[in-house]
Design a protein that fits this description.
single chain; 1363 residues; alpha+beta; six-stranded antiparallel beta sheet; five-stranded mixed beta sheet
Length: 1363
C-alpha cells in the first residue's frame, strides 16, 4: 500500500470517528439547562461532559469552526439564543472554540466574591445523615472559589473539627495531637463505621420520649401479656391500618405499602416517612374506650394547614414559627433557627437524654437551651428547648402549649351507638388524603415551581390615553437590601427583568411585608388600568354549571399556583408593566396581579385548555372535577393532571381538595344531593342578635321598610316589633317579638324568596358596605335586591382605627367575603364615607400606612367606589351595628399591623426622638383635637371643623394616627413645640431653600412648613455670606454707532512683562495697540492722543475704573478734547466686553508670533484685513479700503470703496441680535433694587451685608454702603437682595467713597510701599465728573493732616483699591 493511500485511509478513519462513536451508542451530552437552578453548576457539568464527548468522538482534533458547530448543535435552544446575543471582541471570534467557551463561561458563571465564598465555606456544617466523605467533597468544592492557596487542606481539617455533627467525634478530634486532614478523616470514618455496627448489634427497642431506653424483651412480654388478657371483642386503634378493630382483624395484614414497599401496613400510616411528627412514650396508654382525647385550638392566631398547627410567637424578641405537637413531651428548636435568634455562637447546655420519633429514628440532640417565649397575652414564659439539626420548624410540646394558653384538653364521651355507627366522613377524608398522596407523588412536576403557558398575552391599550410615568417611591434605607434580594429572586425565576430602553409607561412599585418576615413586590397599575382594553370574556353561570353537574357525587377542586404569573407577556406588553425602583426599572415577563384584564384573560385560557374535557369546570384559577362514580372521577382527574403537565400549568397543592362530597362554587354548595345554597351568605342575617333597645328596633325596622316593596304582608309581620316603639310601652323583648324576628329573617334569607335573589353572572354587581364603632357590614346587590349578607365584629385593635380606616376595611371585608361573586367582575361599591372616593383614586404611596395595606389587598378586584348618603345605606348600617360576634382572621389584622410596623420602624428617626415626638403630640392641644377627629371622622364641611385644626382640612384624607404619632402618609406630623428644633435640624448642613424643602418633605410635615423653611434659609447669615453668584441677566446690547470711530473702548493689559494700551472701535472692530513705558495717567493720555490724532476724536470713550482713567488728568483730557468719558461698573468687566475680547485677541496674536518667530506687526495687519462675518474687514469698515500686505492683492482690490453705512449697521444689528438670542437662553432678569433695600454685596468669595443708597447713572449699576460704613458702586449681578434686618441707617445719602483699585491683570505693578503710601493729590473734579467716577468711599472721622495743616485725601485713581 502506498504512503498516500495509507494517509487517505487514516484521514477517512478520523472522519468516521464520530459516526463510529454514535454507532457504538455514544450519545451527545444533554442540552445546557439555563431555565433555573444553579446555572453555574449546570455549565460546569455540561462543559465537562462536552469535552469528554469531543475526545471520545475525535472532534477535539478538528478545526475550530467544526468544533463550534458541534457545540452549538448539542448545547440546546436556550444557549443558542444566548450565543446569538453575544458581542464579540474581534471579527471571527464566533468561530473560535476557546472564545465561545469563554463567553459562555462569563454568561453562566457569576462574578466571584471571595469574601462571600469564604463565608459559605466557614458556615458549612455537616448535615444530619451526611457521611464524612460527602461532607469533605462539598468542602473541597467550596474551597475552589475561596483562594486559600497552601492553607487549603489545613482549613478543611479545621472545618471538619468545627462542623462535624457528632459531639463525641469532635471531642476525639480535639484530643489528637498534630491533627492533619488525613488523620481527621480516619478518626471520623472510624466513628461512623462504629456507629453503624452498633446500630446493627443493638437489639434494644427505642423509647419514644426522654429517659433511658427500656428493655425490649420485658416490654414485649408486658405487651403480650396485656394482649392475652384483652377480650377479643375489645377494639383498639391500629397503627398498621389507621382504623379501630379487634385483635387479629387488621385489614393491612399481608398487604404491601406503596411508599416503602414493606409488608403489613398501609401507605397512609407508613412510619418510614422521616418527619419529626412528635415525641412520646413507647408504651401505648390504656385509655378508657368510652372516652376520646382530642385537642382544640382556642385562639384564632394559630394557622392550621395540612392537618398541622403552627403559631408565630416571639422567642427572645424574634418572631419564630413553631409547630404545636400535643404528642411530644419536649420542645424542639432547629439549630438554624436558634442561630437566627441568639447569634451564630449559641451557648448550649449538654444533654444526656435520647429523643426518638414515632418512626423509631433517634434524633441527634446538640444540647438544651432555655429561651423566653411570650404568649398571646403578652406573658413571658421561660421554656427549655432541645436543639437538633433539622429542616423542620420548631416544635412546642403538650405542656408548653398548655402553659402558653394555645390549647386546652377536653374529654368527650362517646356512646356505644356512636361507636357502632360507621363514620362516612372519616372514610371520605381518608380516601381524599390517600388520593392526594398518590397524585403528589405521580405528578411532582405539576405541583412544584411556577408553570409557564405557551402563548404570550398581548395587552391592548387605548392609544388615546396619555401614558403616565410615575417617579420611584422612596424606600426606607433599612429595606433596600431586602428589596434588592426579592427583585433578584423574581428576576432569577423569570417573573421580572431589567429594562434599559425608554418606555412610555412607568408604574409605581409597592412593598408588602409577609407574616414570615419576607417581602412581596407588587405593581401599582392604576393609571395603566385606565388604558387597558378589556376582552370581556363571558364567565360561566350557575345555571349552566348545575345542568352539567347533575348526579355528580365526587368532586375535586384544583387551584392554579399564582395563576396570572403562568401566562407570559409578549415583548411589547412587558414594557407596559415597567415599574420604577431605586435600582432601576424592571418589567414583568408574566401577567402581573392588579391589571384589570388579568381575570378574564386567565379564565379564557383555562376554558380553552380544559373546555374539551368532560366533567371539568373552570372558574378563573379554580378547576372543578366532578363525576358520578369514583372510577370516573379518578379517570377525569388524571386527564386534568395530564393536561396540566402538557401545557406546563402548575397547581398549588396547599389549596387543592381531592375527592370530596361537596365544594363551594359561586355562592352555592355542590353536593352529592344536588345544588344547595351556601349558608355563609345569609349567616349575617340568621345569626344576627336581637335588638337590645329601641334604637336597635328602629334600625331593624328601617331595614325591613327599605326592603318593604319586596315583602308581602309587611305590616302584619312586623306588628309585634313595632309595638315596642310606642312611648307608653316599656322595652321588653319577649317570645312574640322573637318569633316575628325569626319570620323576618326567614323572609330576608330564603333563596328565591321575595327578597333574596340568586346570583346572576350576567348582571352587574353592587356592594353596599358600612362601618360602625363595633362592627363591619356589607350586602351584595343585583337589581337593588340582596344576594348575600356579611358582617363581623371589630377586633380590639381595629376598634381604635380612624373612621376612614374602618370604612375602607369594610370595603375590603365585603370584597373578600363575597370573593366568589366579585372576583373577575366589575363591582360598584357604595359607601357613605365621601373621602374614600379620593383615596382610592390617588397613588398608593400617598395613602396612610393602614390604608396602603388594605388597598393592596383590594388590588386584585376591579371596582369603582361611589359615595352614597348614609340614610340610603340602611342594610349595611344595620349589619354593622348588629354584627356577628366573630372577628377578622388573625392574618388580616396581622398583615395591617406588619405593614404599619414596616413603615414606622423604618422612619428615619431615633427611638429617643420618636418618644419625644409622641410626648409633644400628647401635650399639644390642637393635635389632641386632631387625633380625636381622625378617629371619629371628619365633618362634612370645613366650616364645621374646629378652628384649631382647619389648617389640616385639605390633607385630612392622608392623616392617620399610629402609636401616638400622627402621620401624613408616611411622614411625621411635627408638634408645634418641636418645629423650631426641626427647622434647625433640617438646615444643619446649610443647604439651599429647595434642598432643605426636599429634605423636610421626605420625612416631616406641618402646615406652612415650606414657607417657614424659605424664610429661615433666606435669613441665614452663613448661607447669605457664602451663597452662589446671581444668575446672569439678559444681555444689554451696546448702541451700534452710525459711523466709524464714533464710540471706542479702551483698556490696559500686561503681556510678556510689558504694559500695553488698546483702543478698539465699536463700529469696525478696528483696534490700535501701543506698548507703554509705564502706566502713569499722563503716559496713557499721551498714547491715546496719538491714536486720536490718526483716526480722529471719538464722541464717547468707554473704560473701566482703573486709576489711569479715574484720575484728574484724564478728566481734564476728556474735557479739553471734548469727548464723553463713560466708566462701567467696578468689578464687572463684562460691561466693557468689547475691550476685554480684543485684549484676548491681541494677546493670542502676540504669543503665537513670538513662538513662531514671526513679525507681530504683520499679524496685526492680517487681522485688520480679515473680513468679519461677511460685513467687511476692520480696515474696510474704518477706512473704506483694504490695506496692502504681504498677501498678493490686485490694484483694483486696493482701490478705496465706500461701504453702505445703512447695510453695515443692519448686518451688525442682526449679528448682535443673534448673540443676544443665545446668551439670553439661560439668563433671567433680577428684581430692581430700590433706595434703602437691604442687600448683600459680593466681595471675593463672600457676601457682605449692606444697603442701597441710590441708583448709579449706568444701567444695572447701584451705589451701596456696607454695614462697615464703606460705599461702593456695583453692578446688579454682584448684589443680592436680603430679607435680613440690618443696623439702623439714619442717613443713606451717597458719600464720596474711598477709591478702590480693581485687581486686574493690567493694574500697575507697584511695590508694597507704593501701595501703602499712595501719591497725595487734591482732587478737583467737577460735579459732572464726580457723578461719573464715584464708586465707593469710607468716612474718616479724624482726617489725616500734614505738618503744614493740609488734609490728606486718597486720590481718585485709587478708588477701586481696598486699602
Amino acid at each position: 500500500m502506498s504512503e498516500d493511500q495509507s494517509s487517505s485511509n487514516t484521514q477517512e478513519n478520523e472522519e468516521n470517528t464520530p459516526a463510529m462513536a454514535m454507532h457504538l451508542g455514544l450519545p451527545p451530552p444533554e442540552p445546557l439547562d439555563l431555565s433555573g437552578g444553579n446555572i453555574s453548576a449546570n455549565w460546569k457539568k455540561f462543559k465537562q461532559k462536552y469535552v469528554n464527548y469531543e475526545i471520545a468522538t475525535g472532534i477535539s482534533s478538528k478545526d475550530s469552526a467544526t468544533r463550534v458547530a458541534t457545540l452549538l448543535t448539542v448545547i440546546g435552544n436556550d444557549a443558542i439564543d444566548v450565543f446569538n446575543t453575544i458581542t464579540w471582541d474581534e471579527e471571527g471570534d464566533d468561530k473560535k472554540i476557546e472564545k465561545v467557551l469563554l463567553k459562555f463561561a462569563e454568561h453562566c458563571e457569576p462574578k466571584k466574591n471571595v469574601s462571600y465564598e469564604r463565608y459559605k465555606f466557614f458556615s458549612r456544617a455537616q448535615e444530619s445523615g451526611e457521611s464524612i466523605d460527602q461532607y469533605v467533597t462539598i468542602l473541597r468544592k467550596l474551597c475552589e472559589t475561596c483562594e486559600f492557596g497552601t492553607l487549603k487542606n489545613s482549613l478543611i481539617k479545621d472545618r471538619i473539627v468545627l462542623g462535624v455533627c457528632n459531639t463525641k467525634t469532635r471531642e476525639r478530634l480535639l484530643r489528637v495531637p498534630d491533627l492533619t486532614l488525613e488523620k481527621a478523616l480516619d478518626v471520623v470514618r472510624s466513628a461512623e463505621a462504629t456507629e453503624m455496627q452498633m446500630k446493627e448489634l443493638d437489639s434494644e427497642s427505642a423509647v419514644h420520649g426522654i429517659g433511658k431506653e427500656k428493655n425490649k424483651s420485658s416490654d414485649k412480654k408486658a405487651y403480650s401479656d396485656n394482649e392475652e388478657k384483652r377480650p377479643m371483642s375489645k377494639k383498639f386503634n391500629c397503627w398498621n391500618c389507621g382504623t379501630r378493630h379487634g385483635a387479629r382483624e387488621c385489614p393491612a395484614y399481608g398487604k404491601t405499602c406503596n411508599y416503602c414497599q414493606k409488608r403489613n401496613h398501609f401507605q397512609s400510616v407508613c412510619r418510614s416517612r422521616k418527619k419529626v411528627h412528635g415525641l412520646g412514650l413507647d408504651q401505648q396508654e390504656d385509655h378508657d374506650p368510652e372516652s376520646t382525647l382530642f385537642v382544640g385550638a382556642v385562639t384564632t392566631e394559630i394557622q392550621i394547614k395540612n392537618e398541622e398547627c403552627h403559631v408565630m410567637l416571639p422567642v427572645k424578641g424574634r418572631i419564630t414559627k413553631l409547630k404545636i405537637d400535643t404528642g411530644s413531651q419536649v420542645n424542639i428548636m432547629p439549630f438554624k433557627d436558634l442561630k437566627k435568634i441568639v447569634g451564630s455562637n449559641p451557648q448550649i447546655n449538654a444533654c444526656t437524654h435520647n429523643l426518638v420519633s414515632y418512626s423509631d429514628d433517634k434524633l441527634n440532640v446538640l444540647g438544651t437551651i432555655k429561651l423566653p417565649v411570650k404568649s398571646k397575652t403578652d406573658v413571658e414564659h421561660e421554656l427549655t428547648f432541645h436543639v437538633v439539626e433539622t429542616n423542620q420548624p420548631g416544635l412546642l410540646g403538650l405542656t408548653s402549649s398548655q402553659d402558653l394558653g394555645l390549647i386546652k384538653v377536653v374529654m368527650v364521651a362517646k356512646t356505644v351507638e356512636t361507636q357502632a355507627k360507621p363514620d362516612r366522613s372519616e372514610e371520605v377524608t381518608k380516601l381524599s388524603e390517600e388520593l392526594k398522596e398518590e397524585v403528589l407523588q405521580k405528578y411532582t412536576q405539576v405541583f412544584n415551581g411556577l408553570g409557564r403557558l405557551e402563548k404570550p398575552y398581548h395587552i391592548e391599550v387605548d392609544p388615546t390615553v396619555t401614558p403616565v410615568v410615575n417617579p420611584p417611591r422612596t424606600i426606607p434605607a433599612a429595606l433596600r437590601d431586602r428589596v434588592k434580594e426579592e427583585l433578584d429572586d423574581m428576576e432569577k425565576r423569570g417573573v421580572v427583568r431589567k429594562v434599559e430602553e425608554p418606555t412610555d409607561w412607568v408604574n409605581s412599585m409597592a412593598i408588602v411585608e409577609k407574616p414570615n418576615g419576607s417581602l412581596r413586590i407588587c405593581l401599582d397599575p392604576r393609571h395603566l388600568n385606565k388604558a387597558i382594553k378589556r376582552e370581556h370574556f363571558q364567565l360561566p353561570t350557575i345555571e349552566n354549571i348545575t345542568t352539567r353537574m347533575a348526579n355528580a357525587k365526587w368532586f375535586t377542586k384544583l387551584d392554579a399556583n399564582k395563576g396570572y404569573w403562568q401566562i407570559p407577556l409578549d415583548e411589547e406588553s412587558q414594557l407596559l408593566t415597567t415599574f420604577n425602583t431605586p435600582f432601576g426599572r424592571y418589567c414583568y415577563q408574566v401577567t402581573p396581579f392588579g391589571i384589570t384584564s388579568a381575570q378574564e384573560v386567565f379564565q379564557k385560557r383555562m376554558s380553552q385548555h380544559f373546555g374539551d374535557l368532560e366533567g371539568v369546570e373552570t372558574d378563573i384559577d379554580d378547576i372543578i372535577v366532578h363525576a358520578e362514580t369514583e372510577a370516573k372521577h379518578d379517570h377525569r382527574l388524571q386527564a386534568v393532571l395530564e393536561r396540566c403537565k402538557k401545557i406546563n400549568l402548575t397547581l398549588n397543592k396547599e389549596k387543592c381538595v381531592f375527592k370530596v362530597k361537596e365544594v363551594t362554587y359561586i355562592g352555592h354548595k355542590l353536593t352529592q344531593e344536588g345544588i344547595k345554597p351556601d349558608g355563609e351568605k345569609v349567616r349575617a342575617i340568621n345569626d344576627m342578635p336581637a335588638p337590645t333597645d329601641k334604637k336597635g328596633v328602629e334600625r331593624l325596622l328601617g331595614t325591613v321598610n327599605y326592603l318593604g316593596k319586596f315583602i308581602p304582608n309587611l305590616a302584619t309581620v312586623t306588628e309585634p316589633i313595632r309595638a315596642l316603639l310606642r312611648k307608653d310601652i316599656e322595652f321588653q323583648w319577649s317570645h312574640e317579638q322573637d318569633k316575628a324576628l325569626q319570620e323576618i329573617k326567614s323572609i330576608l334569607t330564603k333563596d328565591g324568596g321575595p327578597v333574596l335573589r340568586f346570583f346572576d353572572v350576567q348582571k352587574p354587581v353592587t356592594i353596599s358596605c358600612d362601618a360602625s364603632p363595633t362592627g363591619l357590614g356589607g350586602v351584595l346587590l343585583q337589581d337593588g335586591r340582596p344576594v348575600a349578607y356579611a358582617s363581623r365584629s371589630l377586633t380590639d385593635a381595629e376598634s381604635r382605627y380612624a373612621q376612614i380606616e374602618k370604612e375602607l376595611l369594610a370595603v375590603q371585608f365585603s370584597l373578600e367575603r363575597f370573593n366568589q361573586y366579585t372576583y373577575g367582575k366589575r363591582v360598584i361599591i357604595e359607601s357613605d364615607h365621601k373621602p374614600l372616593e379620593a383615596i382610592v383614586k390617588k397613588a398608593l404611596a400617598s395613602a396612610p400606612p393602614r390604608l396602603q395595606r388594605i388597598l393592596l389587598r383590594m388590588q386584585r378586584y376591579d371596582y369603582t367606589l361611589e359615595y352614597k348618603p348614609g340614610k340610603e345605606l340602611v342594610l349595611p348600617d344595620m349589619l354593622s351595628r348588629a354584627p356577628l360576634p366573630e372577628t377578622a382572621h388573625g392574618s388580616m389584622e396581622e398583615e395591617i399591623a406588619l405593614h404599619v410596623h414596616l413603615l414606622t420602624s423604618n422612619l428615619p428617626v431615633s427611638k429617643t426622638k420618636l418618644e419625644k415626638i409622641k410626648e409633644a403630640t400628647a401635650n399639644d392641644q390642637s393635635l389632641k383635637k386632631l387625633k380625636e377627629t381622625i378617629k371619629s371622622g371628619w365633618p362634612q364641611t370645613k366650616s364645621q371643623t374646629p378652628t384649631s385644626i382647619q389648617v389640616y382640612w385639605n390633607v385630612r384624607d392622608e392623616l392617620s394616627e399610629v402609636e401616638g404619632v400622627i402621620l401624613k402618609n408616611d411622614r411625621i406630623l411635627v408638634p408645634s413645640s418641636m418645629r423650631k428644633e426641626m427647622l434647625q435640624r433640617i438646615h444643619q448642613g446649610h443647604m439651599g431653600i429647595e434642598k432643605s424643602k426636599r429634605r423636610a418633605r421626605d420625612v416631616l410635615y406641618w402646615p406652612g412648613m415650606n414657607s417657614q423653611i424659605s424664610d429661615m434659609v433666606s435669613r441665614c447669615t452663613t448661607c447669605l455670606e457664602h451663597q452662589q453668584q446671581n444668575t446672569k441677566e439678559p444681555m444689554l446690547p451696546s448702541r451700534i454707532p452710525s459711523k466709524p470711530w464714533e464710540i471706542v473702548a479702551t483698556d490696559l493689559f500686561t503681556w510678556d512683562k510689558s504694559e500695553y494700551l488698546i483702543i478698539v472701535d465699536y463700529h469696525s472692530r478696528y483696534f490700535e495697540v501701543a506698548k507703554l513705558p509705564d502706566t502713569k495717567s499722563m503716559t496713557v493720555i499721551t498714547y491715546t492722543k496719538s491714536m486720536f490724532a490718526r483716526h480722529g476724536i471719538p464722541s464717547e470713550v468707554i473704560s473701566d475704573n482703573g486709576p489711569q482713567y479715574s484720575s484728574k488728568d484724564f478728566s481734564l483730557f476728556a474735557k479739553q478734547w471734548e469727548f464723553k468719558h463713560t466708566t462701567v461698573s467696578p468689578r464687572y468687566p463684562q460691561a466693557n466686553g468689547l475691550a476685554e475680547k480684543e485684549v484676548q485677541t491681541v494677546k493670542n496674536l502676540l504669543t503665537k508670533a513670538k513662538q513662531d518667530h514671526r513679525d507681530p506687526y504683520l499679524s496685526l495687519l492680517e487681522y485688520r484685513n480679515t473680513p468679519i462675518d461677511n460685513v467687511g474687514s476692520p480696515a474696510q469698515l474704518l477706512m473704506s479700503r483694504r490695506l496692502r500686505s504681504i498677501v498678493p492683492t490686485t490694484d483694483a482690490q486696493l482701490q478705496p470703496k465706500l461701504l453702505s453705512p445703512h447695510k453695515v449697521k443692519e448686518k451688525l444689528r442682526l449679528k448682535q441680535e443673534k448673540q443676544k438670542h443665545y446668551f439670553d437662553q439661560h439668563a433671567k432678569h433680577l428684581p430692581t433694587l430700590e433706595k434703602g433695600d437691604r442687600i448683600r454685596v459680593q466681595m471675593g468669595n463672600h457676601w457682605k451685608p449692606g444697603v442701597v443708597t441710590e441708583h448709579a447713572e449706568t444701567p444695572r449699576s447701584y451705589r451701596v454702603r456696607t454695614d462697615e460704613g464703606r460705599e461702593y458702586r456695583r453692578n446688579r449681578r454682584v448684589l443680592m437682595k436680603s430679607p435680613e434686618s440690618g443696623p439702623p441707617a439714619t442717613d443713606i445719602s451717597p458719600h464720596h467713597e474711598s477709591p478702590m483699585v480693581r485687581p486686574s491683570e493690567h493694574s500697575p505693578k507697584t511695590n508694597a510701599a507704593n501701595q501703602a503710601i499712595p501719591r497725595i493729590e487734591e482732587p478737583t473734579t467737577t460735579s459732572q465728573e464726580q457723578e461719573e467716577l464715584d464708586s465707593s468711599g469710607e468716612e474718616v472721622s479724624e482726617p489725616c493732616k500734614t505738618a503744614s495743616g493740609r488734609t490728606v485725601r486718597r486720590p481718585l485713581r485709587f478708588k477701586d483699591y481696598v486699602m
